[in-house]
Structure formats: C-alpha cells, structure tokens
Structure prediction request, 393 residues.
Amino acid sequence: MKALRKYLDKVKPHFEEGGKLHAFRSVYDGFDTFLFVPNTTSKSGVSIHDAIDSKRIMSFVVIALMPALLFGMYNVGYQTYKLAGALTSATFFDLFAYGFLAVLPKILVSYIVGLGIEFAWAQWKGEEIQEGYLVSGIIIPMIVPINCPLWMLALACAFAVIFAKEIFGGTGMNIFNVAVAARMFLFFSYPSKMTGDTVWVSTDQILGFGPDKVDALTAATPLGQIGAGQDIQASLCDMITGLIPGSIGETSVIAIAIGAFILLWTGIASWKTMLSVFIGGTVMALLFNNIGMNPQDFPASQLPWYEHLVLGGFCFGAVFMATDPVTSARTESGKWVYGFLIGALAIIVRVMNPGYPEGMMLAIFFGNMFAPLIDYCVVQRNISKRTKRVANK
Prediction:
C-alpha cells in the first residue's frame, strides 16, 4: 500500500489547478479517498458524528451483502441444473461457477452504467465523486430475476441514478432509495421480464458450464404460486435456506441474517428499523389470517405469518433497504413507525393485490415518501412536550 500511496502522491500535481489533467480532478479524488482515508483537517468549526467516513460505511454494507450474493450465485446454478434434470451429475463447483458467470455481467453493467454517470456528473458539476452507488450498484443486480436483459438493467440503473439521486443533489440528498427506484422502473416498464414463470431460471450455457441446451425452463416463485391460487411446492426449510426460485440475492434467509448481524455489529443499520419491519409484517399477516377473508379471492390472506416473512424480498428489504440511513426515518421514535409502516404495507400489497405478490419494494418506496413527515411529527411532538413542560414550571 505504501507503493500505491507514493504513486498517487507522485501523480497528484497533474490533477491540481494548472495541471494537465486538472479536468479529471474529481476522478483522482474519488480513487484517492476510496483507497485511503483523507488526511486533511477542517480549518473551521465542524460537528464530528463518527470517526468512520461514508466510504467505509459503504464498504461494510458491501461486505454484509456478500453472503446473500454468493448464495444467490449458487442458487442460480442450482435452479438451472435442477429443472433441467441434471442436478445429480453436477458438482458444487459446476453450480456456483454457472451462477457466478450468469450474475457477473449484471454486476458489471450496473457498476459501469451507474458509476459512469456518477463520474460524468461529477466532472460536469466540478464536484467530488459521490460514493453512494458503491452499495446501490451491487444491490440492483441482486433484486432482479436472472433472466432480466442487460439492456433493461442498464436503463434502470441510469434512470435510478439520474432521477432518484442526482437531481435531488447526490448522495445524502435523495428521498427515495436508488435500488428501489431501479426495481420499480423495471417492474412498471417491463412487467413481463420481472414476473412470470420464465424469468427465474437461466437456460443458456456459459463458457461450457450449464446443462445441455434446453428450449425453456419454467419455475414459479412460492409467492407467484400463491398469487395464482396454487399450493406452495417448497418446504419451509427450502424457504429459509433459499433453494427456491426468486430474485438473485433475495432467497436465502440465512445469508441475509449473516449480513444483518454484520450491519448491527458495526452499528451501521438501526435495529429499531429492522425489527419494526418484521413486527409490522407479523401483525398485519396475523390480522389477515384471523379476519376471515375469502381465500379464493385473496389466497395470500391465509399464508402463515412466518412464511410471509421468509418469502420474497421481505427479509432482504428489511435488512438492506429499509435501513438505508439516507432515505429512512432518523428520529429514534420515528424509526419504529417507519419500519412498522413498511412491514404492514408489504403484507397489505401481497394480500390485497394477488397480481402483485411481491409488495416489499413498493412498501419501501412509500416508506421513503413518508419518512420526512414521520420525523417532522416526532420532532414537533417533542417540541410541544418541552414547551408544555417549561410553561408548567
């Protein structure tokens, strides 16, 4: 690392005012501050919130996402070989390698498009490159089906970065989660590529990996089966381990739980927000279980509360997206309300709209929308209580 530090110091004059590469100053600063903690200090009064900077926070979140991503790669291969009838002849390496090669292009497209726009925006505005897309760039490929075309993913990334982030002022100023915006763009613009029985299993051979060529492999997610009025074929054990069809990184509760532990242990995510999402989902699921709704019209109303929590993107959204410190509620009391609202809305959407069996992303979107109002109400309530306390003295 010392050699790299010396090299960066050596080329730094070229990027400073008057240097031949001054136009790319923001690019240099972005790489320098990502690789090394800045050694500059403020000359005026500042408020220090924490010793760790935002780039380090983003790095920890990426680390927490790794278990879900790696398992998702394995599951992509597992589902393909299983439905092709070639699972017994495949090794662990075959399954993981196939999934890795299938998922890698999506990660590359996400980062190339998203970071490319970030770099271009920073150059145009003459500002420092923002680090927020480091996390969004890996979440977006994890919340889409494996058969989502790369050009659609590129459009979604561009839309999310420009219209859900940059026009609001960049990292720390956006009111909607960037990954949620990308997912909603894809769902409402190209619904046939985001739902159905043909989007969850890859059929192509990749560099010699994959079963013999087949015309098509179809598989419905458990929530898709419920929405169609069918019985769930997967066992509870499969739901928890994640060996079921679904978006790339959302299926394994165990892998997501490992990520949750990392986020909570490092203090990056709020346990209040995370827990309240599960409480809200549980309460609403139990309510629907006991109010006597017609299962013919609302098949998800009779789904046990614990299956609601482990299926679809509920766990992933609760751990990695609802806890986004930028778009979530920031007051301590508000975090409980915000999380409960998301969990309850997710179940409401699942039950009341059988055509849209996955409600978590929409719930987070509405949660982001109401987060400022929740914080405002909490702050005003505290001000009112303190005013009354002073008046009564």
